[in-house]
Recover the amino acids of this structure.
């Protein structure tokens, strides 16, 4: 295969889609005189609820703070355990430390980036208060497995509740880390309402962005009222204040109370305006991302060098957030060499993710990557390729051809 390096390109990894429509929406908010949390944020929440067929949605400033607030609402703290995958971004584990609890890491499946309910079951103890399965690259986990798991009589018997919310639920809480999977489908329904709570990320690199931001969808069973939980978390996200800024501007409504020592996690209308634009055209975004992934698949499937990512199975369909290519039998050093060669040709790539036990803070907590062989095996051969709306078909083909050539060069050494 011959490549003309005189025609090298500069391909970023995942730039956000920002066009005149986005700019106009932000300018409209700036000119409105109201730029913090207000009508745009509440409209985005309503539209997300409609999109996901959810009862209650709350938009906040990040996935991280949003899901941390849920842990605090559920009363998770010192002495408690939260089970999370070893193969995830650090935010999933960090928030467990934030509330003073202990993260219990579980290895992913042998042939998947996802964690199974069977692996998590082995780690459940009387200290377990929450399990947090993670959707990776846009592909959902098998949610029903996890909900069935926490309802098993022998698992419920282990549960030792403390506080009213834990007693009312009477079992382990399941939080879906759906940071990657907004718009994915599980058994014919959009991701969001399959577990007790779902957390989305709208960070700049996500399919749907608000620049920075996140959202919670509440799907707790009776006796909980999801709208009331949303209202409670909203207060926690605003310093424990009983009225938000917009409410206080109404005639004679300046007075408020502080009912807890809360946090500052609200989403602004500037951010929500970006999200509203993206949600309006989200199907177009998904279609384009799928077409790019199909181009990659069509090229890489002709070579016995790679393990292609999974986008569909018997229960789920991806939202094509990442194209997570694995290079067969590649060592970490070889994978890194391929990435370097691609960068020299103007192609930005990434790795999703470094498993938590590889990171210094987690090493210092006693975690060792040797205890998570599947996570290491997936990580050392993984390269995430560019997938974004403005990537052309010609560029996708060019990227794929370069990946093949760089891989062949590395393995011929």
């Amino acid at each position: 295969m011959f490549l003309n390096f005189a025609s090298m390109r500069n391909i970023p990894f995942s730039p956000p889609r920002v066009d005149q429509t986005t700019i106009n929406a932000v300018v409209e908010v700036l000119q409105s005189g109201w730029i913090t949390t207000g009508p745009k944020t509440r409209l985005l929440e309503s539209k997300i609820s409609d999109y996901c067929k959810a009862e209650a949605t709350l938009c906040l400033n990040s996935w991280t703070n949003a899901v941390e607030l849920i842990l605090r609402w559920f009363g998770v703290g010192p002495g408690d355990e939260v089970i999370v995958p070893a193969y995830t971004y650090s935010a999933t584990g960090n928030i467990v430390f934030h509330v003073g609890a202990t993260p219990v890491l579980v290895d992913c499946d042998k042939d998947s980036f996802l964690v199974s309910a069977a692996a998590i079951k082995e780690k459940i103890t009387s200290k377990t208060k929450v399990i947090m399965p993670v959707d990776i690259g846009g592909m959902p986990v098998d949610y029903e497995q996890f909900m069935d798991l926490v309802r098993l009589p022998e698992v419920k018997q282990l549960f030792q509740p403390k506080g009213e919310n834990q007693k009312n639920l009477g079992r382990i809480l399941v939080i879906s880390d759906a940071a990657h999977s907004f718009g994915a489908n599980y058994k014919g329904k959009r991701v969001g309402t399959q577990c007790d709570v779902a957390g989305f990320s709208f960070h700049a690199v996500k399919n749907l962005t608000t620049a920075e931001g996140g959202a919670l969808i509440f799907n707790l069973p009776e006796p909980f009222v999801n709208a009331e939980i949303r209202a409670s978390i909203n207060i926690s996200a605003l310093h424990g204040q009983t009225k938000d800024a917009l409410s206080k501007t109404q005639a004679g409504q300046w007075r408020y109370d502080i009912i807890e020592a809360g946090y500052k996690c609200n989403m602004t209308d500037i951010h929500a305006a970006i999200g509203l634009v993206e949600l309006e055209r989200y199907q177009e975004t998904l279609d384009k991302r799928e077409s790019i992934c199909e181009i990659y698949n069509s090229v890489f499937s002709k070579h016995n060098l790679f393990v292609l990512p999974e986008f569909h199975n018997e229960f789920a369909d991806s939202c094509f957030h990442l194209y997570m290519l694995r290079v067969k039998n590649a060592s970490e050093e070889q994978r890194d060499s391929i990435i370097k060669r691609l960068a020299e040709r103007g192609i930005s790539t990434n790795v999703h993710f470094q498993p938590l036990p590889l990171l210094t803070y987690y090493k210092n907590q006693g975690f060792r990557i040797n205890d998570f062989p599947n996570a290491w095996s997936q990580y050392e051969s993984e390269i995430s390729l560019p997938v974004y709306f403005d990537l052309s078909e010609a560029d996708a083909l060019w990227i794929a051809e370069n990946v093949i050539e760089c891989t062949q060069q590395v393995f011929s050494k």
